[in-house]
Amino acid sequence: MSVVAETEVEAPEIKFVDFDEAFQERLVALQVRDETFCRRTEGLVKPEYFESRADAALVSLAISYYERYKRPPKEATNVVAMLKDAIRRGVVRTDMIEEIKDKIKVVFDPSMDIVSCLDFAVDQVGEFARHQAITAAMLVAFDHLEKHNTVKVQEALEKAFRVGPRPNSTPYSYWKEAETRTEVRRAMKMGEIKPNGISTGIPAIDRLLFHKGFGYRELTVFMAGAKKGKSFTIWDFAKLISMQGYNVLGVTLEVSTEVLSTRLDASVSDTPIDEIEGSIFAVLESIRSVRDKKLPGELILHEYPSGSFRPMDLQDLIDRYKADGIKFDAIVIDYLDIMAPNRWVQNETENSRTVWVDCRGIAQMENVAMISATQTNREGHKSVTAKAEHAAEDFNKIRTADLVISINATEEEMAKGEARMFIAASRNQKGEFAIRIKRDLSRGHAIKEVIGFE
Q1: Which residues form the SF4 helicase domain (predicted)?
Q2: Are residues 158 and 206 in the same domain?
Q3: Does a structural domain hold residue 331?
Q4: How far apart are CA 213 and CA 197, in angstroms?
Q5: Which of 17, 88, 137, 436 could form a disulfide with 452 if both were Cys (CB 3.0 to 4.6 A apart)?
Q6: What's the mean pLDDT in 44-49?
Q7: CA 325 – CA 239 distance, rounded (Å)
Q8: Confidence of residue 17 (pLDDT cuts 50, 70, 90)
């Protein structure tokens, strides 16, 4: 656990003098936008360290927000709202307003890369804080040394050397955090902060889910029998997530990127898949229109042979994009059952379990919503409604996933272009209810609209 040094000696004014203006602006952007940075450097970054008063003001607002909600503001609208409140309360001087507004534009500029520099920034802040703590502790230690109190000398220096970034796992005090949890729930209910999830792109479904969408740091799995629309469903959601401005990484182990992109073209352009070749330029114009109006986030697809892609390969892929400044919000894998474990063993159930556990661990570490699919067993394939016990081969999959949704359709429902999404298992909410939907797989639409609930 990180320790922030406390000393009895009044320290001189401290500034990030070794950090140039551009790096200090990145630190501001990280404090305002990145949850990992805020969590790992909590207590180490102080507004008075910044040379620019606008930087200091924004950091002060962001730290106050984090202390209250245990998450950074992330969005410019939240920062502007905080600034207006600070102006109203007289916390921010009127002569600083324009300067702060300009700085907000800088830290939220799309060209401001805070992904590739995250680990370096955390290390630099940690080194800076440790250096300051040791400097202050030495003054205290000399005072104790003159009094021949070597125990106090050792305590002061050891405490200073422990100053640094927090590890990725931080302690959480259940009893002490009761007020914080309550404030987060109140603010979420009032719409002051957003739920910790990514919208599915379909409000009627969002309202039924615990995170009002796909949860960050969680694994959502769609389950169905063979050729029942699992792949269509997860890629349709990948498209909907990207169209909201989020970055999506897609890994396909079953169909080629050529086939997959054709399905996505059909969905985006609302064109039957088998008519795309006869409507080449009309499809292109539709895609361009959506792209220009929606300003979608990245939707990057990678194709690998079945049984060759491992969780460690996924982590390597994520790291490579982070180095290029791309941070993913969601990862779609088609699908976990045909991935390979990091290390093969003779027990197939254990191989499957480690793939699922390792991938969910990546979702937690990378703070992404992970979406995949899995097969039902034969009984589930024949059932009117597939339930948790119908997962094929290994029930550990149900234990590992945070949300399992089965896709069901009788012959009559399929003839009408309808299906049911059944909440088969959920870690965070009650399940065992169905969402009736309209769909048109011939045009790549796994969900066109919600038509009822059961």
Answers
A1: 197-384
A2: no
A3: yes
A4: 5
A5: 436
A6: 90
A7: 21
A8: low
User: Can you read off the two tokens belonging to residue 162?
Assistant: 């422990």
pLDDT digits (tens, 9 = 90+) for 139-180: 888 888 888 888 888 888 888 888 888 776 667 788 988 988
Taking only Cα atoms into account, the Rg of the chain, rounded to an integer number of angstroms, comes to: 26
Residues 229 and 155 in one domain: no
Cα(232)–Cα(440) distance, integer angstroms? 10
CATH of the domain at 221: 3.40.50.300
Band (262; pLDDT cuts 50, 70, 90): very high
- Residues whose CB is less than 8 angstroms from the CB of residue 208 and which lie 6 or more positions away in sequence, other chains included: 423, 433, 435, 453
Whether 297 is in a domain gets the answer yes
Range of the domain at 389: 195-453
Q: What is the CATH number of the domain that holds 105?
A: 1.10.860
**Helix-helix angle 178-189:53-69, to 10 degrees:** 100
pLDDT beyond 60 at 11: no
Whether residue 77 is contained in a domain is answered as: yes
Give the residue among 30, 176, 211 at the shortest CA–CA distance from 112.
30
CA 214 to chain centre: 10
Q: What interhelical angle do 53-69 and 76-88 show, nearest 10?
A: 100
- Residue 226 corresponds to which tokens in the numbers above? 């063979």
Task: Count other C-beta atoms under 10 Å from residue 296's C-beta.
Answer: 20
State how many domains the chain has. 2
What is the rounded average pLDDT of the residues 199-203? 93
DSSP assignment letter at 70: S
Q: Nearest CA to 424 among 375, 384, 391, 448?
A: 391
Mean pLDDT calculated for residue range 350-378? 92
Residues 264, 134 within the same domain: no
Q: CA 438, CA 447: separation in Å to the nearest integer?
A: 6
pTM of the complete model: 0.70
Tell me whether residue 4 is in a domain.
Answer: no
- Amino acid identity, residue 308? S
**pLDDT for 371 beyond 90:** yes
Q: What is the pLDDT of residue 9?
A: 41
